[in-house]
Amino acid sequence: MKKIDQFLPTFDKHDAIGNETIEIQRLLLELGYDSEIFAENIHSSLTKSAKHYSEHKNNSDLIIYHHSIGSDIVNYVLKTNSKKIMIYHNITPIPYFKDINQTTANLLKKGIEQLAYLKNRIDLAVGDSEFNRLELENLGYDNTGVLPILINFELYKTQNNLNLQSKYGDSQNFLYVGRIAPNKRIDEIIKVFTYYHLNINSNSNLFLLGKYSTSENYFKTISKLISDLKIKNIHFVENPDIEKLSNYYSISTLLLILSEHEGFCVPLVESMHFKIPIFALNSTAIPYTLGNSGVLINDENFEEIAELINLVLVNDNLKNSIIAKQTFQLNSMYKNIKKLLSNMINQVK
Question: What does pTM read for this prediction?
C-alpha cells in the first residue's frame, strides 16, 4: 500500500474536521505514504492544499472518508476500487435546524441516509469518540474502532497579545468555543454568566468564539438576548484563526460548554492543553472525551452552575486537581496517536 487519500464533503478554514484532515495527511507522509486531500467544497484559501474530488484519478490504495453531513462525494468514493475507512464525526439531529436553516437540515437528512447506506460498503468504520463508535455499532457496522480527532498542538502558540492582557488579564473570563448553533445552547451559557456577573463577581467577561454561517436566525436570537441584557461584558468573536483562538484561551479562566449534542467537542481538548478548568453538560460524547476529568454538569439550573463555577474558582486546590486530571486525560488520549492511526491502516491492508 503506497497511496492513502482523504475525502471529505467540505474542506473549510478554522474547521475541526479540516484541521484533522491536514494532521492525518502529515502523519501519513511521516509513515511513508503518498497522500492527497479531495473535497466537494474547498475554501478559497485552501485550494493549494486540496483538490476537487472530480480530479481524483482512482489510484488510491486506501481512501479515508470523513462523514459528518450529506454529500455527493459519497457516491464517488463508493465507485472507487480502493479499500475504504470511514471516520464518523457524528451528525447533528435534524430538529435543531428546523426553522433555522432548511438547507442544512436537508444535508443532515441526506447524511443520515448515506450513513445507513455505507454500512456494508466500508472496510473499517471508526468514530472519533466512543459515543460515535457505539452509534455505528447500533446501526449494524461490524468492524468499528475509535480514533480521537487528531490535533497539531504545535499550532496553538500565543503571541502575548498585550491588548487582551491589559483589558481582561485581571478578570474572571468565561470562554465558549464552537459553532453558534441551536444545539450548542449559547442562550444557557449567557444565563449562567449573567447570574455570575450580577450576583457573584462583576469583574468578569464572557467570550463567545465561533461562526454562525449555518445558523443566522439563531445568531440573531442570541444577539438580541445579549442586547436586551445590557451587559457590556459579553463579547462575540467571529470565527477566530488559531492564533487569535490561542490568545483567548490564554486569558480565560474556564471553558463552559452546555451543548446538548456533540460528537467529540474539540474545545474540551484545547482547554486541557491550555490548562483551564472545564465545565460541561453531561451529554452525548462529552463524558467520553472528558473521561475522568473536568466538571460534568447534570442539572441545567443556571444559578447552580454559576455557584458551582465560583466554588471551583475560589478554591485553588480544587481547581488545580481538576486541571491535573484534564492533563492526564489529554496525555492518555494522544500519547500513541500515530501508532493508533498506523494500526487502523494495517487492519484493512
Answer: 0.95
